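Batch queue: ligand-bound targets. Current item pairs a single chain with pyridoxal-5'-phosphate. No template structures supplied; prediction is de novo from sequence plus SMILES. Inputs echoed for audit trail.
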Amino acid sequence: METRVHTAAVHAGRRDLRDLGVHAPPLDRSTTNPLTSLQVGTDSLDAMAAGGHPQGSSVYARLHNPTVARWEQAIARLESADEAVAYGSGMAAMTAVLLAAGAVGRHVVAVRPLYGCTDHLLQSGLLGCEVSWATPDGLAAAVRPDTALVVAETPANPTLRLLDLRAMVAAAGGVPVLVDNTFATPILQQPLQLGVTWSLHSATKALSGHGDVMAGVVATSVDRAAALRQVRILTGGLLDPQAAWLLHRSLPTLPLRVEAAQATAGVLAPRLADHPAVATVHYPGLPGADPLGLVGTQMAGPGGVLAFDLHGGYEAAAGVLKAVELLTPAVSLGSTDTLLQHPAGLTHRIVGDDARDAGGITPGMLRLSAGLEDVEDLWTDLAAALALVSDA
Ligand SMILES: *Cc1c(COP(=O)(O)O)cnc(C)c1O
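Prediction returned. C-alpha cells below.
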C-alpha cells in the first residue's frame, strides 16, 4: 500500500523479511556465494555486468550484497526514486556519479558553495574535468553542448543558501543535474520529484545519524542506477554490509531525528541572531532568509543545521569552539549530539581562499548541527561560550 514518510522509514526495504521468517534484516557478510548451477552463475553475471540485478545468485560481493540492497531499496523509497546505489562514503558516491555521467575529461558546471571535498575533487583536475563555476543566475549561460552534468547543493554547506531546483533543472536545459541532498535528507526534500537526475547523500551524516558509520548513496532512475552499478563493479567503493545494516537500523528514527534537530535549530537560530557577539545567522527558517520561498514548498522545513558569523572573527570562533562543554567541537553533522565546527579552518580549508570567499565562508563563521539534547541545555552552553568572546 501507499505509505507516508514515517511509515516508509520503518518498513522500507524489509519486504522479504516475513517470508524469511525474521524480524531484523539478516546481515550477510559473504564475499562469495555457492552456486546451485553454473547457469545461475553466468545468468547472474551477465545481468549484473549490464548494471542489472542478480538472477538467482549474488556470485561475488563486489557485484551485489543482499544486506546493502535492502537499504538501497529503502532509500529509493524515501527519495521517491526508482533505485538507489550505495557506496563506502559520500565522496565515493560523488566520484561514481562523475564517472557514470562521463564527466572525466569533459565539461562540468558547478554552483558554489559545495562541500569542501566536492569542490576540491572538481577543482583539483584529478578526474580531468573542465569546470565552469556558475552562479544560480549564470547557470544557463555556463552550460555548453559538451557539458556532462551540473553539480549543486541545497541547502549549501556551510552557508545554508537554498537553490530553486526546478529553476536549475530548467536552466540546465536537458543536461543532467546532480544535487547533494545531504543537508536536507529525503525527509525534507526529494530532488528527483523536481526533475533532478541524481540525489546524492553522504549517509555518514543524518542517514546514519549516530556518528558511527561512513557511507554514501545516490538515488536515481533505473538507467542511471544501472550505469552507477557498472561503475561500482569496476571501481569498488563498496558499502560494507555491516555499515548497511546499521544504516537500515537507523532508518526508522530518521524522520523523528530530523524533526527534533529542526525544532532545536529553530529555537537556537533567533536566539543567536539576537546575541551581541553574533553578526549574522544563516538559517533558512529565519525571517527574510528564504527570499525564493522554498521552505514549505521545495523543502518541507528548514532543517537542523545553521551557521553564524561572529563579530570577533577567527579568534572569537576559535574561542567559542574551545569554550563549549556540551556541544561537540567536531566536523560532520546529523548526529545525536550537537556538533559545532569552523568551516574556514576545517571542512572548507582545502578549497582555498578564492572559493571560500566566493562561497561566503568567513573566518568568523561557525556551523552548528543540532542533535537530540534538550535545547535549553544547548543554549546555556552556547550562551556561556559566546559571553566569553563578547567580553574579549
Ligand atoms: C560529508 C559530506 C560529503 C562527503 O561525504 P563522506 O561520507 O564524508 O565521504 C559530501 N557532501 C556533503 C554535503 C557532506 O556534508
